[in-house]
Amino acid sequence: WLIPTVTGLGLLSLSLAAVPRGRAEDRPTPLRLPWFQQRERSIARWGIAGLLAAAAVSVVFLFLSDLYIREARDEQGESAAKQLSAARTAADFNPVSVIPLYLQASALEAEGERRHARDVLQDALSKEPDNFVTLALLGDLQVRDGQFDDAARYYAKASDLNPRDTGLQQLAQQTAQRTAATSPKAEKNSG
Asked: Is this model's pTM higher than 0.70 or not?
């Protein structure tokens, strides 16, 4: 059900299999409309064949994207360059998914390119603005950069989008407290 193309092909196959088969004289004669001639039937057949071919190609692209995502996950922690290459290939096969972007950001951060990793995560956020995972990953990246104020905002927004996740609530509270403790006003009051 998660891949509409496969579901559509499956339902088409089931409907074709459900057509009763009998003797030729038992079947009703097809309706012959004068305007639906041989040429139109041929065009309709080619159109259906084209749609089925497009569906098959999209399934192959999704499969290849998943294959490269698994490869990138396998390379995680071992070779950032190979992980980055596999994640970029996965993104080429499935430009709608944000998972390859997460893997790209991970590889870029492992290579020390946090700014570029942040840009990739911002791209993922532009694709899915209400995805709490992307916001949490941006918060994690900001914490590692020491930007607790930005991290607290990302965590708070992620927690608002997923209020049942107590881990996100704790991260939002902890970074907000840390921001308050390190703010210039708090330093003036202590000094």
From this structure: no
